[in-house]
Amino acid sequence: MTTPPVPLDTLASRLDAEDALAPLRRRFLLPQDTVYLDGNSLGPLPAAVPPVLRDVVTRQWGTDLIRSWNSNDWWEAPLRVGDAVGRLIGAAPGQTVVGDSTSVQLFNALSAAVALRSGRSLLVVDPDHFPTDRYLADAVAGLHGRLVRQVSPADLRDFLAAEGHQVAVVAYSPVDYRTGELYDMRALTGLAHRAGALVLWDLCHAAGALPVELDALGVDLAVGCGYKFLSGGPGAPAYLYAARRHQEVLRTPLTGWNGHADPFGTARGYEPAPGIARARIGTPPMLSLLAMEAALTAFDGVTMTEVRAKNLSLTGFFLRCAEELLTPLGLTPVTPADPSRRGSHVALRHPDAYALVQALAEHRVIADMRAPDLLRFGMNALYNTHGEVLTAALRLRDVVRAEGYDRSPRRRGAVT
Amino acid sequence: MTTPPVPLDTLASRLDAEDALAPLRRRFLLPQDTVYLDGNSLGPLPAAVPPVLRDVVTRQWGTDLIRSWNSNDWWEAPLRVGDAVGRLIGAAPGQTVVGDSTSVQLFNALSAAVALRSGRSLLVVDPDHFPTDRYLADAVAGLHGRLVRQVSPADLRDFLAAEGHQVAVVAYSPVDYRTGELYDMRALTGLAHRAGALVLWDLCHAAGALPVELDALGVDLAVGCGYKFLSGGPGAPAYLYAARRHQEVLRTPLTGWNGHADPFGTARGYEPAPGIARARIGTPPMLSLLAMEAALTAFDGVTMTEVRAKNLSLTGFFLRCAEELLTPLGLTPVTPADPSRRGSHVALRHPDAYALVQALAEHRVIADMRAPDLLRFGMNALYNTHGEVLTAALRLRDVVRAEGYDRSPRRRGAVT
User: Which of A170, A186, A315, B397 is 20–30 Å from A305 (CA)?
Assistant: First the structure.
C-alpha cells in the first residue's frame, strides 16, 4: 500500500507550521501581498534599520556632528561591523573589515595574494565567475605581470596537478551566481593549499545563506557584498577577510589614510596599521555602513546551521513545486537537486526568461533573471515561507499558461 | 578727522544684516546654541536629507525593492549626482562620477594619468598634501615603476623648468588642508600643461567653498570628497572628474562591472563604458549616495561667486577678530590675510591647540585642530554668520584667559 503524495498546499502549510524560524519574518518590513524571492540580489528592509538610521542622521550627524567619530564610535565601525559579518562567515574577531565595494575589495585581496605568493605567475578564476571577479583578476594580473587562467572548479584538480606550482591564488565563489550550484569549499581550499596556492573566496552568494567556515577551513582571503543575503541595504559596503596568519605581511595597494598605523599623524610614508585595520582605505560611507550594522541584527540568536536547514527546505520545496507545476510547461531546473550541491537560489531555464520575470512581477512575485535564459528565485530563511514558494510556482505556471509561453512537448507539437 | 574703529559686535550685526545668503541657513538643521566651525571636516545636516532618506529607505528600498534600480533611477545615480557636483566645480555634464572614497578615486585618477602620459617617469605631489594623497601617489608610482617627487607649489616653476619633460602628472590641492592657504589653480595648471604634464586637483577643501572652474582652466583630472563643504554626510561618496577630451582613452585599474560597456552582459573581458561611466567601479552605497544628492540641493539657486564672497567676508572678519582678541594672547594666524590666497578656513597657531579646541567645544564652539599646533576654523557661507564668528573668537579669548593658555609677551614675561 503506497500513501498518495501530499498535495503541495498541504505540504507548504505543514512545513511552515513546523518552522522554528518563522517568527524571524517580523524582523523585516516586507511589502504586503508581495512574494519577494530576490533577496539574493537585494535583501529586503530589516525592521531594525529605520530607527537606527534616524538616530544616525538626526542625533549623530545632526547634533553630535564631527564629535561622532569618537563619541558614537564611527571610527571603529569598519572593524566592529567587520566582526559582525565575521560571526556569520566563521571568522574570529579581528580578521574582517567592512567598506568600499566588492570590486574594490577584490582588487585589494587579489593584489595582496599576488604579493604573498610573489614567485608564482598564475591567478586562477572560474570562467563562470561573476564578471567583476574576472575583470579585477585581469586588472591585477596586468599590473603585476601575471596571467589569469580560467579553470572550472570541476577541473581544478587536474589543472593544479599540471601547473599548481605556478598558481599564486585560486579565486572562486562557493555558489554559482547563475545556476545556484554550490561547490565544495573544503575540497577546493584543500586542493589549492596542497599546491601551495592561496585561496580567495567571493562570498557574495554564500554569506548569510549557509555556514561558511573560513577559519576552520584555513581560508586565506575572502570578500563579499553586504546587500544580498545579509540584507544590508542597496549598495551596502562590502567586506574583506584576511586570515590572521597573513596579516603581519599583508600589503594592499589601496593605501588610504584610514589604514595607516597613525591615521591622524602626518607621516611622510605609508605604514600599515597592525592587524586587519591595514585593509581599511578611505573614509567609509557611514549612513550605509551603520544601516548595515543594524540590518545584521536580523541574524541575532540564529545559527547558520538553522538558516541553512530552512533554506534547503525552501529550495527543495521549490524544486518539488517546479517538478509538478513547471517542468511540464518547459521550465527546466538547472540547480542541482542534491542538497549538498545547492546554494540558496534556484534557477529555471526558459527561452523567455526575461518576459516571464516581468510578467511574474505584475503578479506580485519578484524574482530576477540572468541572460540569456535563466529565471532565478532566491530564498532566505529569515523571512521566506514555503507558502510563498508555492505561490510563486503557481503564479509562474499561470503566467506561462495564460501568456502563451508554454514550451511543453504537447504544446510545441501543437504549434509547429 | 579719523572715524573710530567700528566695534566688532556692531560690525558683525551689520555684515549679517547685509548678508543676502542669510536665509540659506534654514536649509540646515544645526544644533541650537552651538557655533559650528568644522564644516570643512564634516558639513552639518541639510534639512533636505531626512525626508529624502526616509523615502529612500521606506519606499524605495522597503517597498520597491530591487525594482528601484530602474524605477527610482538608482542605476544612474552616480552619474546624476556626479553632474550635480559638476555644477559646483565648473564641470559640464558627463565628466564627473560619484562613488567610493577619495583615496580610491585618487588611485584611479593617478593611475589613469600615468597611463595617459606613459612615456614620463615622475608624479609630482605637494610635500604638504593631505597624507592620503601622498600615500596613493607612492602606491601608483610603485605599481608602474614611476617615481614621486614632492615639490611645493611655490617651487613648481623651477622644478618643471629642470625636469618638466619627465613629469606625467602634477597632483595638487588648491587649498592647504592645514593652513587654509589657497594656491593659484590657473597658474599651476598652466605651468603643468606647458611642461606637457597633466594636472590632477584634489578638491576636498575647495568644492562648495569657492569657484572651481575645471572646464575653463582646462584641468585634466580632479577628485574630492562629498562630506566637507558639500555637506553630503559622514563619509559621503567621493567623486572623480575626467575632462571629456581624455575620456575615450581613459583607463582606470579598478575595472568593476558598473563601469563596463555592457554591465549586465557576461562578456569575457572588461570593455570600458563610453564616457565618464567607465570610471564607475562597483555597486555604490545608495543610502549615502542619495543622502548626498539631497544635501547638494542646499546649493540650489546660489552661485559659487556669492558663496565665495561671503566666505571671504567670514574668514576676513575672523582674521580681524583674531587680530584684536587673540593675537595679543599668543594665537598667531597662519592663514594668508590676502583674500586671493585664502581658502575657506582660518588656522591659528598655538602650542596648546589640542587642549584649546577641547575647551572650546565645552563652550559650544566646534572647531578642530591639526597636529601639532594648529586650530582650524572652517566657515561655510550657506549657514555660518559673522555673529557666530565673533562668538567663537570671544569664547576662545575667554578660554585662553581663564585656563592659563595666555602666551602673550606680557604673560610669558611674567611667568619666566
Answer: A170
User: pLDDT value at position A415?
Assistant: 40
State whether residue A240 is helix, strand or coil: strand
Distance from CA of residue B313 to its chain's centroid? Answer: 19
Burial of B395 (0-12, 13-18, 19+ CB in 10 A): middle
Buried b (16+ CB within 10 A) or exposed e, B196-228: ebbbbbbbbbbbbbbbbebbebebbbbbbbbbb
The answer to whether residues A393 and A318 touch, using CB atoms and an 8 Å cutoff, is yes
Q: Taking CA atoms, what residue in A is nearest to B36?
A: A65
What amino acid is encoded at B27 in this protein? R
Q: What counts of helices (H) and strands (E) characterise chain B? A: 15, 13
Q: How is B286-305 classified by DSSP, letter by letter?
A: HHHHHHHHHHHGGGTT--HH
Round to whole Å and give the CA distance between A176 and A173.
7
Rounded to an integer, what distance in angstroms lies between the CA atom of residue B320 and that of residue B337?
A: 9
CA distance A411 to chain B (A): 31
Q: What are phi and psi of A167, to 5 degrees?
A: -90, 120
Contact between chains at A38 and B368 (C-beta distance less than 8 A): no
CB pairs under 8 A between A and B: 243
B31, B44, B132 ranked by CB distance to A257: nearest? B132
Q: Do A235 and B291 touch (CB under 8 A)?
A: no
- Residues above pLDDT 70, as percent of chain B: 98
Please give the model's pTM, rounded to 2 decimal places.
0.96
Dist. CA A292–CA B68, nearest whole Å: 18
A130 is catalytic: yes
Nearest CA in chain B to A265: B371
Domains assigned to chain B: 8-30+302-415 (3.90.1150.10), 50-299 (3.40.640.10)
CA–CA–CA angle A404, A408, A410 (5° rounding): 100
- The residue of chain B with its CA nearest to that of A284 is B235
CB B226 within 8 A of CB B236: yes
- A143 and B143 within 8 Å at the Cβ level: the answer is yes
**Rounded to an integer, what distance in angstroms lies between the CA atom of residue A198 and that of residue A189?**
8
What b/e string do you get for A22-55 counting C-beta neighbours within 10 Å, with b at 16 or more?
A: bebbebbbbbeebbbbbbbbbbbbbbbbbebbee
Which of B65, B102, B134 lies closest to A44 in CB terms?
Answer: B65
ipTM for the complex shown:
0.96
Q: pLDDT tens string for chain A (416 positions)?
A: 567 789 999 999 999 999 999 999 999 999 999 999 999 999 999 999 999 999 999 999 999 999 999 999 999 999 999 999 999 999 999 999 999 999 999 999 999 999 999 999 999 999 988 889 999 999 999 999 999 999 999 999 999 999 999 999 999 999 999 999 999 999 999 999 999 999 999 999 999 999 999 999 999 999 999 999 999 999 999 999 999 999 999 999 999 999 999 998 877 799 999 999 999 999 999 999 999 999 999 999 999 999 999 999 999 999 999 999 999 999 999 999 999 999 999 999 999 999 999 999 999 999 999 989 999 999 999 999 999 999 999 999 999 999 788 877 655 444 43
Cis peptide before B174 (omega within 30 of 0): no
Q: Are A72 and A64 in contact (CB under 8 A)?
A: yes
Show residues of chain A in contact with B227, CB under 8 Å: 283
Using alpha carbons, list the distances in angstroms from residue A22 to A27, A306, B398: 10, 12, 62
Task: Tell which of A98, A132, A204, A289 to mutate to test the B interface (max B CBs under 10 Å).
Answer: A132
Catalytic (active-site) positions of B: 130, 202, 227-228, 376
Chain B residues touching A284 at Cβ < 8 A: 101, 235
Q: What pLDDT score does A261 carry? A: 95
Tens digit of each residue's pLDDT (9 = 90 or more) over B314-344: 999 999 999 999 999 999 999 999 999 999 9
